[in-house]
Design brief:
This protein has 341 residues and is an alpha/beta fold. It has twelve helices and 14 strands. Strands 3-4-5-6-9-10-11-12-13-14 form a ten-stranded mixed β-sheet, with helices on one face. Bound molecules: S-adenosyl-L-homocysteine (SAH).
């Protein structure tokens, strides 16, 4: 059985040819899968009965199943999704920001071991396939009734996208296909802890999503402790690569900066961040730390957060405090894989 969920459109067309069917049916099948959320070939009514039978006999469409769903007071919805091999991942729907946003996972667990992130405590279990990554979007879009509406995708769930490069890029290609979801690159954001070689490779791609860099530490001394990847690819090398990263007119790089009480939240830290970002079209998302029993850090007070933000703004750095969406259901940043009640 060929799993159609794993195929970009060209591969789907080749599969059809191998089954003795005209390639152009690939467009129709893509529309069923990605525009209408239909995976059963018998329901693909614009295909001949013969082709429907052939597809039913020779192909399948693997889709993550919703094991659990939790809705936050603010409408944020966390999905526990089960994969074909029984492994679990999480994805989150964040409504009305004002955009509709899906936060999607790229790995089961994560190898980055950031000390302030729960997913990092799991270690890496395995990479997600391209079909499992794009499949999360199919599931969330159909479940929320947004299949035919515009939405954003952020690769900010479990995992490090650039540590699963080929599958992530293939998933982006599938989601971007005009005959399928037709997502523009401007609606997709890839977030990385700073895997440099892969980031350099991304800069050479024909299609490049928006870039977010998780910084959380404005000096090597601090970042080495908080994000071990920094020991391999130090901050100045990372920012050099970001400086050379191709951006469109008025496009900016997002920097995510987690505010950890007494660790990354002082005005001095803020000034170091300002110096670091000099010359980069940047936007800073300040994320007050989301606490968890397993994590030793604490969240700073609202006043401390505001003081930090003010230093950035006074130095003409755009800085926004990330609202703490879905915190009551542990759907907030860094809380994925917290136990389901
Ligand atoms: N591995 C990628 C994608 C994950 S994005 C990356 O690091 O960018 C997840 C975001 O949540 C990161 O910006 C991370 O800094 C942030 N985060 C992790 N743990 C957190 C916590 N406990 N509180 C707030 N933000 C956290």
């Amino acid at each position: 059985m060929t799993d159609l969920a794993e195929l970009d459109r060209r591969e789907l067309e080749e599969t059809l040819a191998a089954l003795g069917a005209p390639r152009f049916h690939g467009r129709q099948i893509y529309r069923w899968l990605y525009k209408r959320g239909v995976t059963d070939p018998s329901a693909m009514t614009d295909l001949s009965q013969k082709l429907r039978d052939t597809l039913a006999a020779a192909t399948s469409v693997t889709t993550p199943t919703v094991a659990k769903k939790q809705v936050s007071e603010d409408g944020t919805t966390k999905f526990l999704l089960q994969l074909a091999d029984g492994k679990m991942i999480e994805a989150v729907y964040i409504p009305d920001t004002p955009a509709q946003t899906f936060c999607i996972s790229t790995q089961v667990g994560c190898a980055m071991s950031c000390g302030f992130c729960l997913t990092g405590k799991m270690g890496l279990v395995r990479n997600l396939t391209a079909g499992e990554i794009s499949g999360q979007v199919r599931v969330l879009a159909s479940t929320t009734g947004l299949l035919d509406r515009a939405f954003n995708i952020v690769l900010m769930g479990m995992g490090e996208p650039l540590h699963n490069y080929d599958n992530v890029m293939k998933a982006i290609r599938i989601l971007h296909d005009p005959e399928g979801m037709n997502m523009s690159m401007g609606r997709i954001t890839l977030s990385t802890a700073g895997m440099l070689p892969a980031l350099e490779r991304l800069a050479e791609e024909p299609m490049i999503p928006n870039l977010a860099i998780s910084l959380t530490g404005a000096t090597n001394e601090k970042r080495d402790v908080l994000m071990p990847i920094n020991r391999k690819y130090p901050i100045e090398q990372l920012l050099d690569t970001v400086r050379r990263f191709p951006l469109k007119h008025r496009q900016r790089v997002t920097f995510e900066y987690v505010l950890l009480k007494g660790v990354t939240d002082s005005p001095e830290d803020a000034r170091a961040l300002v110096r670091l970002l000099r010359g980069i079209p940047a936007k800073v998302n300040l994320i007050p730390f989301n606490e968890a029993d397993e994590l030793e850090y604490k969240r700073p007070s609202d006043e401390t957060v505001e003081r930090f933000q003010n230093v950035l703004v006074e130095h003409n750095v755009s800085a926004f405090v990330r609202k703490n969406r879905g915190n009551d259901i542990s759907a907030a940043c860094g809380q994925l894989m917290k136990k389901w009640a």
